[in-house]
Write a structure and sequence with these properties.
Rossmann fold; two-stranded parallel ribbon; 7 strands; elongated
Amino acid sequence: MRAKFCSPAEIIAAEPNADACATLQNDVGISTTPKNAEAAQKADIVFIGVKPGVVLPALRDIASFIQNKQVISLAAGIRLTAMEAAADGRFMRALTNTPSAICSAATGFARGSRTTDQDVDVARAIFGAIGIAVEVNENQIDAVTALAGSGPAFVYTVIQALAEGGTRCGLPAEAAMTLAAQTVLGAAQLAIESKKSPEDLIKMVVTPGGTTAAGLAEMEKLETEKGLIAAVEAATKRGQKMAKENA
């Protein structure tokens, strides 16, 4: 809706919490129902937005209402083969992240064995409306979960650390946080728009023997880069383990 991709009248949400339903209806304007089956029956495209452990039971409950419908799961760790065994929908998986709330999402999506080219076009249009969307193979989706889905938390940790460094060096806390967040935003935007490699962008900032070089040397000594790589790898492995647990 924020992206003006569709109107509230085109959306129905299944939500068991009465207060949440009231908010969605009164503040957002979409239709709600406490029953998954009703939403699945009325919708042309069904999004599965429940916790991973609930996905397969929920699909079995609505199986008769999603036959040959496009169904997009937003859950980590639940494989397409498992969903296709639970119901006859045209399943896809999409892993997005919290910046979708401001139409700045990074989304990876994968097609299933029943997915049509039109389904892919629809998914790309939907997720493209709220950010960028990249098609990947399902065996790569756990890496997408780790990088794009968990990634904002890693970036927020970086922002928090940059701000803390600023306060330790004498900046007021509010000013340090504002400068840290904007610095990350600006650096990311420049990386996207310039299409330069991180190495080239670093060279644009570094002066030999200067302040940036001193800071980077300290980061290398503390193995900051290795820590971030390890975070993505650990999150990926956890996603793979979840998939095996829910196979």
